[in-house]
Amino acid sequence: MVFLSYVTLVGTFPVVLNLNKDKNYIIILFLIIAFQIILNISTDYNLFRNENLTTNDIEFRRGNEVFQLVYFITMNVYFIYKLQTAKLLHIKEKSSKVLERLPVPLDSVKELQQLAITNNPIFLSEFRSVFPDFEIKLLELAPNMIISELEICAFVKLNITTKEIASYTKSSIRAVEGKKYRIRKKLALDKETDLYVYINKI
């Protein structure tokens, strides 16, 4: 009943192969499978009877069995390769789409994060050059926001946590939380609104 394996193999073609790009390859595979099925049917699914076999018959049967074994192993390896390639391509395309949606180049964000980590005094000015409209929009929402609060908002924009902000600015966690509380109050945010989500939309 080896012929049933061919049916399942053909069924994988639309999933694993590209029907347009792999057209010639599919035709070759189909002809090989069709030959094997016809051979099995014409011999009543028993290529040779076990009795009265000549040496040539035995060699031909063994050769055919070896061919089928190699054929299926090759197909399995190839199909696994195609599936893995398709998965990696999907991940790559998804990553590209995410990067395309970023408002600024990823390298610029990483540079800003590095300036924040080292508590570099040029952090805020560099942040303004990367996000030129951010501070303007923020001040339109909360005109009474002071410079230290604007700096905290810049950290939040870069998804830096409260603990990390405290570490980078040599402040206490409570001090950072206090600034965040005042920022929320000036922005008139309710308790349900996530500050990070809100800031990242600005």
Beta-strand proportion: under 5%
What overall geometry do the principal axes of the alpha carbons give?
rod-shaped
Could you tell me how far the N terminus lies from the C terminus, measured between alpha carbons in angstroms? 65 Å
| Helix/strand class | mainly alpha
Treating each run of at least 4 consecutive H or I residues as one helix, how many helices?
A: 11
Sketch the major β-sheet: none
Low-pLDDT residue spans: 98-102
Count every beta strand, where a strand is a DSSP E run of 2 or more residues: 0
Residues in helix, %: over 70%
How would you characterize this protein structure?
The two termini are 65 Å apart. The chain has eleven helices and no strands. The chain is mainly α and 202 residues long. The radius of gyration is 33 Å and the shape is rod-shaped. Mean pLDDT is 76; it is low at 98-102. The protein has helices at residues 3-11, 13-16, 23-42, 55-101, 106-117, 123-130, 134-141, 147-157, 162-168, 173-186, 195-200. Helix 8 (147-157) packs across helix 10 (173-186) and helix 9 (162-168) crosses helix 10. 72% of the residues lie in helices and 0% in strands.
